[in-house]
Fold these 2 entries.
Entry 1:
Amino acid sequence: MSQTKMPSARQRRLRSWLFWAVPAVLLLLPLATNPYTQFIANGILISVLVTLGFTLVIGNLGQLAFANTAFFGIGAYASAILAAKLGVPWLLTIPLAGAFGALGGFLASSAALRGIRSYYLAIITLAFGELMRWAYLHAKPVTGGTDGMPMPRETLLGTSLSDDTLKFYIFLAVTVLLVKATLNLMRSRFGRAVMAVRENEVATASLAIPTARVILVTFMWSGFVVGCAGALFARHVGHVFPESFGMLHLIASFAMVLVGGLGSVLGAVLGAVLLTALPEYLRAFPGMEELFFGLIVAGVLVAMPMGLASLLRRVSPIFVERFYREAP
Amino acid sequence: MLMQLTLGGLSQGMIYALIALSLTVVYRSTTVVNFGHGDFVMAGAFLSYVLVVLAGVAFLPAAVLAMIAMFVLGVLFNRGLIRPVRGGPHIGLALMCIAAGYVLRGIARMVWGREVLPMPAVFDMQPIFLGNLVITGDAVFIIGTVLVLLLILFGLLAMTDLGKMIQAVYQSPRGARLIGLNVDRFNDFSWGIGAALGALGGILVAPVSLLHPDLGASFLIKGFAAMTLGGFGSLGGAVLGGVLLGLAEQYAGAYLDSALIEITAYVVIVAVLFIRPQGLFGRKAVVKV
């Protein structure tokens, strides 16, 4: 276990003040953006949630589960189908998409709970993601097949929901809410149980902690967060395609998790902020995205295995969340 | 019809067997599952394409050269990138392999863009007609090559001293080190062999399919499915699992629905892991405290 200094009471107060200061400043961001940078800023908020959900399972719970892309796709399709086919207002589809994501999390954890761990879990969750993509492609009447699903036009308080500034405020609210909730969850007794399962599952069970329930709930919460992100994504791009939920999305999420720091909420935010915008500029050159993310992941693993969050922790105890290992 | 499907399934299955076997070789000796293996397969196919089409080398020497190049790449990958993260949890190793795969894929796409390339036919043999059955040169070539290779490999393992040493490393790396075997070098060797065999899979499918930088992903999943079906870590199981998967794909595609060919492997993975996680020939995993 780490010998990191824990923050003092004063630093903890400063930290909770800082937590609200960041989104408060961000409220002014639309004043400083043009339509393109605003679009990217919205994408960053979505990445924050995706990375957060991912780091919970692979960093905090320490399970090699790659179903994250599946949760994201499930959330996006749930939102698009509910909005386009059943006429549910998009805002309402966000928690519903989260619920479907949580259902995906339940399915993924049912594999983990059957004792499928480590590489087996990685393989079965990869298969799960690809099966979902196959389903999007082949369930044409429901998902639109290769043509995807367009999001219906909607207005909110007299403003069109295709307005990026309005979207930004909604995305920001959802992101702040879910990040705060996750932080609180990980600081609770439950969060400590999650990390205990990562360190030694058998020892944790011997302390009368229901490890199966801990795994189940973590997967479901991860699925919920990422499912909500999927609903935001559906509105963000306005059209849901099966290709958005393939392998490139997976490696991008890996890179964000690792650069920020495995198992750190702050790291998830940092990684998403740093790595969402950059590929936009690489997209024009074929192959550069893959090369870039591949090299980043390999480089971070060798040089800085616990990511940027571990550097920040050394700078000030303010950035200490709880219970880190200093190696992955 | 049934015979034709069986032949098609066998020749596909041999490729899967080869890929599953190459994954198993690495897994058994180093306990690393190479999640970037599909891209090694792709790299083998592209290297042979470059040598045959652009450099004008004949197919056989091109295949050998490509395999040697991939052997070297496998060794370098193990030394340069896997060793620094060894000893850590599985997640670091898995991510490192995935990262390496993406780098290979990125390079392929940088050079070729989003094109899909056809490889010229290698084996211009007149198909043989046996009643309704059509035997193509490609099928003969694929099945023959893999069978010969399997005989050599399993013969080496079972009958030579080298094979005994490799089996010793498989059983217990620590024990093997204690009796004076250079386990690190064996690991390098396994990575090299794994990469070269995977590349051979790519080289063999190249003439019968189209080349594109994403071709590895599906082969990776098929390799996993074959390994899972045969029993993770069992060499013979990997081969048998690959053949069974190839047959299952063909039968499911013909008798049920052609869209099922793509997902047979996924269904196999999910079904086997839920019903019989140890596969056909694997040993049941026991958690040691």
Entry 2:
Amino acid sequence: MRALFFIALNGFRESRRNRVTVVVGLFALLLVFFTTFSFELAVNTLDRAMTSVGIGFISLISEVLAIFLACGMLPREVERRTVFLVVSKPVSRTIFLVGRYLGNLATVLFVFSLMTGLFFLQFVVLRGTVTQAHLVALVGIVAEVVLLSAVGLLFSSFSSQFISVTTTVGLFFVGHMASDLYRLASASKAPAVKVVGLALYYLLPNLERLDFKLRATHSLPTPPGELGAALAYSGLYATLLVAVAAWIFERRDFR
Amino acid sequence: MTTDFAIETRGLSKHYRVGRRAIIALEGLTLSVARGEVFGLLGPNGAGKSTTIKLLLDLIKPTAGEALVFGRSPRDSEGRRTIGFLPENPAPYEYLTGEEFLSLAARLSGLSAAESKTRVGELLVRVGMAKASNIIIRRYSKGMVQRIALAWALVGKPSLLILDEPTSGLDVLGRQLVRELILEERQRGTTILFCSHIIPDVERLCDRVALLVGGKLIKQGQVSELLVSEGALMEATVESITLEALKALGLEARAAGSRVVVCFDPAKTQEVLTQMMGAGARVCELTPARYSLEQLFVDAVTHTGVEERP
């Protein structure tokens, strides 16, 4: 467990010193800062607009950063052969992989916390009302980041950065269109389309289950059971993906 | 599990497939390295030296055969607690300082925070990197990277040190430092598997060597035995005769300034001298010449007829 901690800490340190991460972090803060101050609307509309744009940006930046880190760090380490040094120590490949995953998550959550803090600060200054719906939406973003990072990690455990990014971004969009996929498959009269469509719906990550942003915009509450189910879904799905990634990574040749 | 051997391989093979082409990186390697021995792996590019090392560290999986390190499978990550590894062209974490990099190695090797601090301090001095310890590795020269990576290998006080081209990229002083470190480790009882293109280093440092060509083991044994088995040579430096005239006598000769050097079997000394003097040569010097490891290497590669692989 000590090794896991040091690898995760090292991953966090790497991201913190990576110019791209720093630029993305600063850009994210500027974006949140300027968008929430750029509205001149009535008080009731202001709350809604700020929530929609502010949380929207927090979500977008967090997800982009999660994909960038999950798909970029591991292939880079394998290509540069830095991995040779680490796995020659008494560290299993699974520990190394999970450590990298946790390091990536720590980085995204760090930037996410800064953006969220800034968002709430401005919200309170402008006399907006923080509701349960805001918090649920933010928890949903974290759950999505956890899942997306695991998807990216799975692909980067056996393929290049380019392939990992392309596939993960593809799954991101498919995951946000899960209900459309379900409707399309259910309505189809062709049995093959129906079977494949439904299989994809159940197999691929359903990111719509973790998306509570629209409810935050309209201050609609989410039942605790629904949130709990969404979190369990994200946690279990991510655990499964990381386990598969570790299984592949353990068997991989580092030439 | 206790064993007299630090490394044992039995029929170890690794085959790759690149597209439709099958590549035999290593074929049926059987060798053993005793505890405390300095063992050299020699061979041209693509001979299978790095493949052997990667198999011993579980960086790649064998196609056939098995490898054991101190009696344990390389897949056992705990077994790597006893191993220090310096890869060829090491790529350390560039965003860390030298000190942070070594601290990470120490903590991954299981050292406590206090032990780590002491050990890292010692090693930074030992590899001559104390002054650069707070500079990020991205700014290091190739030689500095090699030194800090060598310290990474040594940090856990390993019982087996695997060094792949350890003097690559180092200047004369750096190479001397590496040789000293290897000798120090040998005195400490560390087993060293040493892989290098620099044959004089191998000849000077290794107790035994294995010569790999085209993924196959061609020769192995003690350096002195291998050289003796190839036979001694006698060298005569002569003048007052041309290179062509000597070659016409069926002798192996090469020009050396205004003189000519002739090599022959010591058993035929009397016969060759009589033959040369009869042709008008004046013998200036007669010395026994040792068959070098380099010559052994070149001969083995030439006789095998295997081309270098990238």
